């Protein structure tokens, strides 16, 4: 739940099964520096959208050294133990699935040095709606600072063409990324009406990226979402 007005927000929820860590936007001054009305798509500039940038600060004090992240518009159909057991290759700390319906050239400006020196414009875009991350390495590599630096640069000269928090996050982590089986993040459910039942059935995680969220009147694939739409876990 997102509460508060203006530039401050608090995210919290309740569950009888999990110990949940609160996120208070005002505890992180970097959010105020990185969320600016000069950036495009102001609806993405709420502080809670940047909460995952600070997972190392939030979770390492609780003895949690790695974490799985799931966007709120996802449903899990597979066993997350298998995702949790991901073995990171040498030098990697972040694992996510890519999606080849869009390429890096759609998202990023390859005339910018930091982009052309890091990415390949023909590479498939990496969607950060589902991932696993090594928080110890995330902190050691100072990923928070890298993200803040990229967003600051973007304010003066656009680095990415689309989005804010996901684009900066992916660019900061790109050299530390390994790919997951794409079944861990089946995207397009929020806009593509042509996804086959077989593909939906075999996916480990369904992801309604796009505008037609399943809880909206015009949402897609509501039959997949409805069995899990109880408010038992989040109030």
TrEMBL record:
Keywords: Glycosyltransferase, Metal-binding, Transferase
Pathway: Glycan metabolism; pectin biosynthesis
One of the Pfam families matching this protein, by short name: Glyco_transf_8
Keyword Transferase among UniProt keywords: yes
Gene Ontology annotations for the cellular component aspect, listed alphabetically: Golgi apparatus
Molecular function as annotated in GO: glycosyltransferase activity; metal ion binding
Class of enzymatic activity (EC top level): transferase
Family in the record: Belongs to the glycosyltransferase 8 family.
Protein name in the entry: Hexosyltransferase
